[in-house]
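Throughout this chapter, every protein is written as a compact record of paired, labelled lines. An example of such a record is reproduced below:
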Amino acid sequence: MTPNPKRRPLKRPPAALAVALALLAASTVSWADDDGKRSPRVAPLPSYARECGACHVAFPVGLLPAQSWQRLMANLPRHYGTDASLDAATANAIGVWLTANAGSGKRASEAPPEDRITRGSWFVREHREVSPQTWKLAAVKSPSNCAACHRSAEQGNYSERDIAIPR
């Protein structure tokens, strides 16, 4: 086969294409909702899962609207009392992904107070049966510790059938 002289050699993709490919790679997956129904969710971006999941469960991106994620990413040096700073490239990639996949449905129709998922009306309604004493248990510590009760939270499964409240 003879080479085509009109063909240009392949070049490295520009940064925007690289981000787009990363978003495509993080395509949707299906997992159980809190009511046990299967629904599409966005698979965590590996850098999001690694960086944010190092301190807490990498929360499902659809639980906050885009403006909340933007504020959280802009304030990483003061992330709820912790310095969660990231290098610029990682922060930008995560920020682009969070904004592109942010919630827009009823769970994220409005930003919760202080952009805290645990203070949103959906979260409060879903956890209304949890006693104040449960949140204070040493194994739980706070409502943001999803994995304390949701045994498969790390895999994105928040089904009520998979809850085990510590004693």
Observations:
- Residues 31-162 form one domain.
- The two ends are 71 Å apart (CA to CA).
